[in-house]
Amino acid sequence: MPDIWDFLRTPRQEWPLRPVPERVRDWREVHAPGRSLPIVQDQASRCMDCGIPFCHHACPLGNLIPEWNGLVARADWREAAERLHATNNFPEFTGFLCPAPCESGCVLGIDDAPVTIKAVEAAIASRAWEEDWVRPQVPERLSGKSVGVIGSGPAGLACAQQLTRAGHTVVVYERDDRVGGLLRYGIPEFKMDKDYLNRRLDQLAAEGTVFRTGMDVGGELDAGTLLRRHDAVVVAVGATAARELPVSGRELAGVHQAMEYLTQANRVQEGDYDRPAISAEGHHVVIIGGGDTGADCLGTALRQGAASVVQLDIKPQPGVQRADDEPWPVHARVHRMSPAHQEGQELVRDGAVLAGDSSGLPPQDALRDVRVFSAATVRFQGDAAGRVRSLSLADAETGTRRPLPGTERTIPVDLVLLALGFSGPENPEHGLAEQLGLRATATGAFARDARYAGGRPGVFVAGDAGRGQSLVVWAVAEGRAAAACVDAYLSPTGVSALPVPVVPRDRPMGL
Ligand SMILES: Cc1cc2nc3c(=O)[nH]c(=O)nc-3n(C[C@H](O)[C@H](O)[C@H](O)COP(=O)(O)OP(=O)(O)OC[C@H]3O[C@@H](n4cnc5c(N)ncnc54)[C@H](O)[C@@H]3O)c2cc1C
Ligand code: SF4
Hints:
Elements: H1 6-9, H2 20-23, H3 36-44, H4 54-58, H5 65-73, H6 77-85, H7 91-97, H8 101-105, H9 117-130, E1 146-150, H10 154-165, E2 169-173, H11 182-185, H12 194-207, E3 210-212, H13 223-229, E4 232-235, E5 255-257, H14 258-269, E6 284-288, H15 292-304, E7 308-312, H16 339-349, E8 371-372, E9 375-382, E10 388-395, E11 409-412, E12 415-418, H17 431-436, E13 459-461, H18 464-467, H19 472-490
Parallel strand pairs: 1-2, 1-4, 2-3, 4-13, 5-12, 6-7, 6-12, 7-8
Antiparallel strand pairs: 9-10, 10-11
Residues 59, 61, 63, 65, 94, 98, 100-102, 117-118, 121, 473 line the site of iron/sulfur cluster (SF4).
């Protein structure tokens, strides 16, 4: 039995990762398989079951964290899996991919290391699959109503699963040749095994959700057809319109958007081809952009055998401690080391990969990892064949982010990956918006009201399409919430028993 004082006796222990030299030679998950299970019960027992669990409020899904921590600490894995699935359709997605704002809100984190909530979540989900507790939940009766969901990322999938289980007939229309959205073609295999996605898709299909791939709604397939075919339509098309870098030389061969590169690398893992057309193998690679997408490019480039890798971040390096304006329980911007950054650091230290060329960057031994902060890209230079050969960068002025005069230097490069974030749903001129009467907000996302309704009657907007590029946990939470609003819209009483974990105006916990 857990003891309420366990947090004083048991230190935080991280989920072990596979050794860097081993894991960069394959595409399998970075976590050591099954290694979390021996430690996770002790880790769960560090939970203090606080009066006000800020972890629960920090989680957009409202996951019942203290409840399942307590159940795991008592080795009641089956009940823990029940409680976890009560609020989260896909806990293995979040357990492996979420940046865990819950851990930033953990009360123990005020003066000690927070509970390893994310690892506990992943361990419960893994155990539930291993024990065959995850079964299709086929609705007892059908409502006679049908819903078309456009887009099969985590928002579309969560929405479809909730609505199918509520008895509606749901068809998911996906533009790509495979289902999964960014879980399929954005996020690399080493962060989450695609089998986790595939087995969930099997579960959804067994429950009755129908998938139609190769359907560009608003393009080849008129969205008006969907309005006539279904009683409601949910737009969950994501926000993958990539931001550009308008500098001289952008048009040179070898300068690519990150998603072009990551999609190809993911397609190799899917078996579509042996070698991607864009590969980092043997190349000097510069990744521009310091976020998740940039880190995914880094891990991919290292696995493809890049000769050198540098990641430029225009923002200054954050501190290792919270800034005063980001106190507990806010998910603060602090210097984090993702597994890909850890790989870069170790390979550079061991001389297996160069961190760029020392001519224009800090000396190798001064680089804590392959990231260079406060770095503004000024221009690219190419050779006679029109291929990128070098990049000029300068220190970025704090605040304005403009290049500081007198700090410019040039580094060699033959592959540039732009990972500058996303501005909203792709291609506003695409027929989808016009055919469904959708309007763009000032940030470029699709506008919706407090009940996720946007555009023509019966049209709803969920996930990144309405929120802007965000996180898997928000996408799942929005998918669940939008499903409740659709269910209420279709119900003769106008009410739904489905949960609404978030409303469109909700934002991460902050000041
Ligand atoms: C490289 C990368 C790495 C990331 N890593 C993480 C991470 O580690 N952790 C995390 O929490 N979040 C991460 N994110 C963010 C996360 O993936 C997204 O927030 C999440 O996938 C959004 O889900 P969604 O369902 O709204 O949209 P998406 O996942 O973008 O899915 C939208 C789907 O709609 C389809 N579609 C678009 N237009 C049409 C159309 N007209 N007709 C039919 N279908 C259409 C698309 O093909 C796509 O399949 C990452 C994002 C990127 C780009
Ligand atoms: S989904 Fe994310 S925020 Fe919620 S409990 Fe899991 S790791 Fe924490």
